[in-house]
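Reply to dn_fold:

You asked what the input looked like. This is it:
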Amino acid sequence: MRSRRDSNRTRLRNGLKKADKPAPLEFVKQGSYAMKTMLRHPDNDYDIDDGVYFKKSDLVGDRGAEMTSLQARQMVRDAVDDSSFKRAPEVRGNCVRIFYEKGYHVDVPVYRKVEDGGTTVYELASSGGWKRSDARDVTAWFDDARKMSADGGQLRRLVREIKKYARSRTSWSGSILSGFGITALVIECQRIDGREDRALHDTMKAIRDRLNGNLTVAHPVTPNDTITNGSDDPKARMFRDKLSQALDWLAPLFDADCSRKDALACWDNTYNTTYFSERGEDEARAATSYAAPIAASAALIGLESQTSAAVVSSTSRHA
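and this is what came back:
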């Protein structure tokens, strides 16, 4: 994905130069890629967000008028489309999307740098016009949250683990809360614990309980803006309901007679995988006896160490 991002940066610079359009000031990685909470997906359904920045004074049309947000996105789309893609890049509401045959895509949000009375601000070319925004603010917000957390490493893992649960069934795709929304809720409701399994369970429960009271998720860096849509956002509601389902699947972990085998099966059921049970079988073959913990904390951490991108693979025991 990083190599595709770099290729698109070169493609965009060359396309703008060829069309006699303004050169970018800079590119800034953003989203889950920048926060290191990106997931691997069995169908390659993932993306990189790579913002491109221009000076406001450079973004003028042929007649000298200021470019609209749509015109700026169209300019970037035209410049990056060098006819090498099977599916042509498209202008989306808040970005230009570049598609790849293997299933993944690169999103290129377009920003302008505005000098306002000695103050520099940044604006995003959105579907509603130029909107005050800067991708770096979101990354800084996440980094600050990690520093303030009792365990910033676990906080990042919790984001990955809960995002992975939300992507564990293809039938949920497009109908459940976005990764950004999930990230915001994990930061708000984090339950840090020395056991990975308990931290994950308790954070899921805290988020479910929070959404029971209020489905609105505020944007962490844009004042008076929300990640969700309205007070009864259907994607937030679905996420809440699926968390309740996960908590039901995990309930046997707290039974006094829950065996390690039973605990691993609970996590398999939750994540729609066979990873945990297969790991247990491998461990059983490698040792003659085991203690029977209530939950599969070691399995979660072991899987996390295999990949920085996902807590489980829904199609394979290897991330």
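The CA atoms of residues 38 and 90 lie 23 Å apart.
Hope that clears it up.
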